[in-house]
Write a structure and sequence with these properties.
The chain is of the alpha/beta class. Among the domains are: 89 residues, OB fold (Dihydrolipoamide Acetyltransferase, E2P) (Beta Barrel); 162 residues, P-loop containing nucleotide triphosphate hydrolases (Rossmann fold, 3-Layer(aba) Sandwich), CATH 3.40.50. The protein is built from 9 helices and 13 strands. Helix 2 crosses helix 6. The longest helix is centred in the last third of the chain and has 46 residues. The chain is flat and about 70 Å long. The N and C termini lie far apart (52 Å). 36% of the residues are buried.
């Protein structure tokens, strides 16, 4: 390890916490690295290996069968992960994730027949920029959905309304009402409006999430100070964009920290996001504590503080409707996940019983 300079990883987010996670692997002659981009059985990494030009990308092989599942059953690698590689540039271990942005890989509708699964969008993220275009119809429900995703990850969300220079009237107060406890900014990456304020709020690893056409890549380029990610114009008819970003990719920010640009999200299903929903709809959670019944469903129960707030106008009906919708979806997916886990456990035990019967038969039916 004498030829390895771990300070070279500092621009990619290396700190004392990750160093502590790496210590148990120190004696195995493994080298820490950060995943910059995944590409099936290989990945681009930042690693302190001696090369003619350290800034050039290093490729590493990924043997997924050798990577252990975490307690939350999130397996495989994604952009932002810290790993340990051998000197042949093969990933040998996955360091613990501090945070992870996870979405359901199905639509989340109760009539869907798709197999429930999840996808990790980015790992070890500290700040999530929830991006939406301010020059079109601002979908408050989608912002709430993305906020639940961001809060559940363990990172700090910021709502960014992009393309402020093209907008006639940005409903920023409506967005703030839909994002309690979250900073909401209107910015223009092209015109520089609000960019200094945004840059001052960024911390650690920053991930951008939002729909295609939300201006994520343009915003990322402005924060990086270079045209790193491809951009394209949205369609004039419906203001929708094309997927110009096709991979999740990590880059160091010039002022410190790192940035992960992500492809546009069309489907944003929640995955085990009860805590994220509680943070997103904090005022409803607070009102629920004042209801007469602890299991109040906020439908027609007497003494319901939530319905009283709706009646007085203190709580918009739209907020409660959105909370109900996302809660039902999250509960449904959680139930599917539990059923799937039970089925997988039953399959394992069935295999064990089958093997025991085979061994018993080979022994001539005699127990020992």
């Amino acid at each position: 390890m004498s030829s390895v300079d771990l300070d070279l990883l500092v621009p990619y987010g290396w700190n004392s916490a990750y160093a502590a996670d790496y210590l148990p692997l120190l004696g195995d002659d493994l080298i820490p690295a950060r995943v910059i981009r995944m590409d099936r059985s290989e990945c681009d990494i930042a690693a302190p290996l001696p090369t003619p030009d350290y800034e050039s990308r290093l490729r590493a092989a990924v043997v997924r069968a050798q990577l252990p599942r975490s307690d939350s059953e999130i397996s495989g690698l994604c952009t932002g992960d810290w790993v340990a590689i051998d000197r042949g540039r093969t990933v040998r271990a996955l360091l613990p994730r501090r945070t992870a942005i996870v979405r359901a890989a199905v639509s989340g509708q109760p009539d869907s027949r798709a197999r429930s699964a999840h996808q990790v969008l980015a790992a070890n993220v500290d700040t999530v920029l929830v991006c939406t275009a301010g020059d079109g119809d601002v979908d408050l429900g989608r912002i709430e959905r993305l906020l639940a995703l961001a809060w559940e990850s363990g990172a700090q969300p910021i709502v960014v309304l992009t393309k402020a220079d093209l907008a006639q009237d940005i409903p920023i107060e409506d967005v703030r009402a839909a994002a309690p406890g979250v900073t909401v900014l209107a910015v223009s990456a092209a015109g520089g409006v609000g960019m200094e304020v945004l840059a001052g709020l960024l911390h650690g690893t920053v991930a951008l999430i939002g729909a295609s056409g939300a201006g994520k890549s343009t915003l990322a380029n402005a924060l990086l100070g270079a045209d790193v990610f491809a951009t394209s114009e949205v369609r004039e008819g419906d203001k929708r964009g094309r997927h110009t970003t096709v991979h999740r990719e990590l880059r160091p920010l010039p002022g410190g920290g790192t940035l992960i640009d992500t492809p546009g999200l069309r489907s944003v299903g929640l995955w085990d996001a009860a805590e994220g929903l509680g943070r997103t709809f904090g005022e409803i959670e607070s009102l629920s504590a004042q209801c007469r019944f602890s299991d109040c469903a906020h439908e027609n129960e007497p003494g319901c503080a939530v319905l009283a707030a709706i009646e007085s106008g203190a709580l918009p009906q739209r907020r409660l409707d959105s909370f109900r919708k996302l809660s039902r979806e999250n509960d449904w997916l959680a139930a599917r996940s539990d059923a799937r886990a039970r089925a997988e456990r039953a399959k394992v035990w069935k295999g064990i019983a089958k093997e025991q019967r085979r061994m018993y038969k080979e022994r001539g039916g005699k127990r020992r």
